[in-house]
Design brief:
The chain is of the alpha+beta class and 91 residues long. 18% of the residues lie in helices and 25% in strands.
Length: 91
């Protein structure tokens, strides 16, 4: 299953400058593992020491926030698009 992953600008240095990459995965958790295999260091940037997504990292599957789906266990299918977005704070 080929999943398109949109990479935020701050993490593109880990993906050799690519704003989009493709991985094969059946869940968001598998997607993160596959990203780490291809782009070492990316998992530490988006996950904590327990392999859970960091609070300030938002992940969307086809424009739906995975926090309202099954979080890291959200299933993926061929053709899905996943966006990784760092939260932005400001005042």
């Amino acid at each position: 299953m080929s999943i398109k992953v949109r990479i935020p600008t701050p993490l593109q240095k880990l993906t050799n400058g690519q704003p989009e990459v493709e991985v094969t995965a059946s869940t968001v958790q598998e997607l993160i593992i596959e990203l780490e295999k291809s782009y070492p260091g990316i998992q530490a940037r988006i996950c904590d020491e327990h392999a859970n997504l960091r609070r300030f990292v938002n992940v969307f599957k086809n424009d739906e926030d995975i926090r309202f789906l099954k979080r890291e266990k959200t299933p993926l299918k061929d053709g899905d698009e996943v966006s990784i977005l760092p939260a932005i704070a400001g005042g």
